[in-house]
Structure to design on (563 residues):
């Protein structure tokens, strides 16, 4: 069974985003970019399924600028077989991403799509659910455990009250949460090997998907800053301050 | 313009997130209906009917809806959207699970976790772990929105809307519920609590987390939270995680113990009214957002805090 893994190139999670002074967006010039951490978890899970023999092939796809090839290359070094870049410099909205991914899924016919629950730039937490809806395939979001069988997949999900386990008929869409696994670091030989793996490059036009622009960004601003308060000497002083000054206990 | 709010509940009780989402909905239109999807939800519907300003309450019931299966919820909501211009749900794990599906099926762009309604077309939402706020204008005829409940006041009760059943839709024939592991607790719910006490990696073990964090929380009538590191290490259950990718809280008082204050953690608690940090590293980033910082080893500081609270009549 083929597993398709959509991955996004985003600001590195260790970097604090800075808003541009003209309020048009976040300054990404000379900022370290990496694979979205949740996508990394999805790649790891797919590669493990492949290593266990449950998946026959892991195909990675990214929609983004030419540099997103590096992100795909990272996934190939982790163990994915081949990559597809749909190249665009426009920053596509979740709806467009979902439509493109649906078109790719129809062409590739994977048994399972494993992806991140959320991209840490836009924090939308939407594409997986939208893709599932567009394809009419079952969905399980926020996965902390994935057990793949022949015709079904059993997924334990992290939900607000605890955990929920679902069984989905395949093909299905599963989105990864933090505790699904700990992604590996690619070894040097695997990084070298990844250089010889294929990455196809296409454009949104090849899939007949046009940028539609349902949402217009009016402005991007900085949130109100919290200022550091005071240091207290000991617990007794803390309780006094919380009681008399802050009035919260 | 009419707006539909999808209620947040556990089939027995309505959660206050619903009242807060109604507040956001009323900023779009005075015609707000609440949809309760679930199973055996007559009691929940009766509670929703009391929210002031709600025009009517709809109920859709089936087994799959009782388990909050996303395919079932979107299947119940989409046909109703013929009569609405917007649908809002709180950005809970359930809301995030079904709302983007509704958007995709209506061919519109979902708008996630809004903090503010600027006008019925324009919304403010956090991006990049809350380090930037994006104002977006939607040109879609129908809006699909999730709401960060902590950013809105709860609409009061005092109404008496009529309740009516609607078609539950096709369910989720290819998705089966297997089991639930719901953490039972007598403490207040994390997302709605007035005080939250959170523990981090410094706790070192689940036993230590129970021993240190929970008695303090109970003394204060607080909910318990945790950093990702504490959850990953198994010190606390997953639904305690506060942060960019966990729960967002904004209590009156947030006490962070042995938590460094990574960007991703701050994203989930920096809108708290008062923040207290106890950390032995005076340079920990958590102190940059803390109103009151105590540079100390929690092993001595927390027992002292318990004593001081007892002395203050807590
Ligand atoms: C994609 C992604 C999403 C994430 N989402 C979240 C999220 O939602 N929520 C979240 O919390 N994190 C999240 N993280 C993780 C985040 O980056 C940090 O790794 C995490 O918050 C650190 O947890 P911590 O503060 O408990 O641990 P640490 O950073 O290790 O800090 C422990 C602190 O305890 C202090 N300490 C140690 N011993 C003592 C003692 N005896 N007394 C007092 N203080 C002591 C230390 O000085 C230190 O400051 C995410 C990361 C990624 C990549
Ligand atoms: N441009 C993109 N290219 C490939 N996959 C994407 C892209 N954007 C989002 N995704 C996938 O969708 C997931 C959720 O993203 P989002 O809904 O934008 O928070 C990500 O973790 C990716 O797996």
């Amino acid at each position: 069974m083929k597993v398709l893994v959509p991955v996004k190139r985003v600001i590195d999670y260790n970097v604090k985003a800075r808003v541009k002074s003209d309020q048009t967006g976040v300054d990404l010039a000379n900022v370290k970019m990496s694979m979205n951490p949740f996508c990394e978890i999805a790649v790891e899970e797919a590669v493990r399924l492949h290593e266990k023999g449950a998946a026959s092939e892991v195909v990675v796809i990214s929609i983004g600028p030419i540099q997103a090839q590096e992100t795909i290359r990272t996934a190939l070094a982790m163990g994915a077989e081949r990559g597809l870049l749909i190249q665009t410099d426009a920053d596509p909205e979740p709806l467009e991403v979902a439509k493109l991914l649906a078109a790719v899924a129809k062409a590739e016919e994977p048994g399972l799509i494993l992806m991140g629950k959320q991209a840490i730039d836009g924090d939308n937490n939407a594409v997986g659910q939208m893709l599932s809806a567009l394809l009419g395939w079952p969905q399980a979001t926020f996965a902390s455990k994935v057990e793949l069988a022949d015709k079904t997949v059993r997924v334990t999900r992290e939900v607000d009250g605890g955990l929920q386990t679902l069984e989905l008929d395949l093909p299905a869409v599963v989105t990864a949460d933090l505790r699904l696994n700990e992604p590996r670091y690619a070894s040097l030989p695997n990084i070298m090997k990844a250089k010889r793996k294929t990455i196809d490059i296409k454009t949104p036009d090849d899939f007949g998907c046009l940028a539609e622009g349902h949402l217009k960004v009016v402005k991007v601003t900085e949130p109100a800053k919290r200022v550091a308060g005071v240091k207290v000497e000991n617990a007794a002083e803390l309780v006094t301050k919380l009681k008399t000054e802050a009035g919260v206990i | 313009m009419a707006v539909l709010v999808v209620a947040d509940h556990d089939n027995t009780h309505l959660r206050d997130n619903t009242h807060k989402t109604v507040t956001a909905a009323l900023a779009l239109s005075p015609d707000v209906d609440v949809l309760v999807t679930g199973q055996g939800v007559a009691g929940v519907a009766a509670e929703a009917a009391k929210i002031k300003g709600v025009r009517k309450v709809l109920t859709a019931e089936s087994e799959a809806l009782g388990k909050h299966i996303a395919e079932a919820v979107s299947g119940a909501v989409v046909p109703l959207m013929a009569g609405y211009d917007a649908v809002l749900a709180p950005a809970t794990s359930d809301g995030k699970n079904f709302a983007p599906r509704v958007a995709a099926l209506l061919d519109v762009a979902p708008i996630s976790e809004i903090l503010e309604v600027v006008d019925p077309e324009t919304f403010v939402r956090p991006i990049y772990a809350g380090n930037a706020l994006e104002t977006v204008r939607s040109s879609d005829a129908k809006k699909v929105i999730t709401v960060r409940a902590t950013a809105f006041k709860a609409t009061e009760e005092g109404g008496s809307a009529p309740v009516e059943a609607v078609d539950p839709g096709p369910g989720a024939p290819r998705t089966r519920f297997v089991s639930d592991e719901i953490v039972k607790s007598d403490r207040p719910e994390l997302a709605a609590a007035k005080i939250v006490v959170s523990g981090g990696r410094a706790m070192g073990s689940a036993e230590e987390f129970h021993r240190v964090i929970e008695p303090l929380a109970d003394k204060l009538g607080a909910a318990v939270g945790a950093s990702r590191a504490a959850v990953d290490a198994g010190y606390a259950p997953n639904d305690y995680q506060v942060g960019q990718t966990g729960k967002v809280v904004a209590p009156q008082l947030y006490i962070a113990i042995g938590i460094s204050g990574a960007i991703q953690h701050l994203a989930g608690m920096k809108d708290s009214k008062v923040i207290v940090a106890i950390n032995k590293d005076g340079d920990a980033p958590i102190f940059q957002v803390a109103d009151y910082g105590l540079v100390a080893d929690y092993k001595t500081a927390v027992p002292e805090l318990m004593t001081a609270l007892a002395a203050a009549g807590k």
Remarks:
- Residues A 6-8, 36, 38-39, 62-64, 94, 97, 115-116, 118-119, 122, 124-128 surround adenosine monophosphate (ligand 2) (CB under 6 Å).
- Chain A touches chain B through 83 residues (CB under 8 Å).
- The two ends of chain A are 57 Å apart (CA to CA).
